[in-house]
TrEMBL record:
The species this protein was found in: Lutibaculum baratangense AMV1
Any Pfam family hit: Abhydrolase_6
Upper classification of the organism: Bacteria, Pseudomonadati, Pseudomonadota, Alphaproteobacteria, Hyphomicrobiales
Name used for this protein in its record: Alpha/beta hydrolase
Transmembrane segment boundaries: none
Alphabetical keyword list: Hydrolase
GO CC terms in record: membrane
Domain AB hydrolase-1: 45-277
């Protein structure tokens, strides 16, 4: 038990170290506010997390990216520390709020890069369109919103009366089913991020948007280069990568695609160096 506690403490310390290295900012969103973490110097790069997520989805890539860019990583409206909103809350509305927040942080003329993970990819497409000529690049990591076939993923739910250990095993199962190619890479840090991210329920059902072709439709109006990145073992793609690419290129015919070897859905965690290299290429 003491050994387990020590590992959990180390995971929490790793999160707090990155959090402490960031500058923190709040931007207005109507009667609410958006929480931002900022780190690094250079052209701003906006990082958007996935469903049931927070800024911590990007934790293992933030410092490396900060060596090249001014990283701006929000908890999107309706999620984590930017939560508390009443539904409905949809990707276009989130994108508008994030765009307004970026105006407060960087002004309304600064060029920006945009990257989104999973559900955040759908929001990133809306954001790049809203930013118009200010968006210089759009990266989509394991993105939803491409409307093609996907495998069935069996997730587990927590139940009333579960012990802490039983809840931990639910998190481990769900990370293995959805997020990782190699379950052996599910470490204490990944489990702690998952625990924190699922403590609060988002005010948006992200699956509703991830399984539609809305992103491909939006990409027709995005004026910047598009780069799609998937792990070769992404559970949301399975054997359907060719159909995913086909839908992507209906919206962005010149889009680049990178398949990261030995990697699942949560690519920035399982293979952070490869994702950073792809984003900076």
């Amino acid at each position: 038990m003491e050994a387990e506690t020590g590992v959990e403490d180390a995971a929490s310390a790793a999160i707090e170290r990155i959090d402490g290295a960031c500058e923190h900012a709040w931007t207005p969103d109507g009667e609410h506010r958006i929480r931002w973490r900022l780190i690094g110097e250079g052209r701003p790069l906006v990082l958007l997390h996935g469903g049931y997520g927070s800024w911590m989805h990007w934790l293992k890539a933030m410092e490396a990216l900060a060596g090249h860019r001014r990283v701006a990583c929000p908890d999107m409206p309706g999620f984590a520390q930017s939560g508390g909103r009443k539904p409905p809350y949809d990707p276009p509305r989130i994108a508008v709020a994030v765009a307004e927040g970026l105006g407060h942080l960087f002004g309304t003329a600064t060029p920006l890069g945009v990257a989104g993970f999973s559900f955040g990819g759908t929001v990133a497409g809306h954001l790049a369109r809203a930013l118009a000529g200010r968006a210089r690049s759009l990266a989509l990591i394991g993105s939803g919103g491409l409307g093609s076939a996907r495998p069935e993923i069996v997730m587990r739910s927590r139940a009333r009366g579960m012990s802490a250990r039983e809840i931990l095993e639910v998190h481990r199962h769900n990370l293995a089913a959805l997020m990782f190619k190699d379950p052996a890479r599910i470490d204490a840090l990944a489990l702690e991020i998952q625990r924190r991210n699922t403590e609060t329920r988002p005010t948006i059902v992200t699956r509703r948007y991830s399984r539609t072709p809305v992103l491909a439709e939006i990409l027709r109006e995005v004026p910047c280069p598009v780069h799609a990145i998937w792990g070769d073992g992404d559970a949301t793609v399975g054997p359907f990568i060719e159909s995913r690419l086909s839908v992507l290129r209906q919206g962005a015919p010149d889009a680049r695609a990178t398949i990261v070897p030995d990697c699942g859905h949560w690519a920035m965690y399982e293979q952070p160096e490869a994702v950073v290299t792809a984003l900076m290429s």
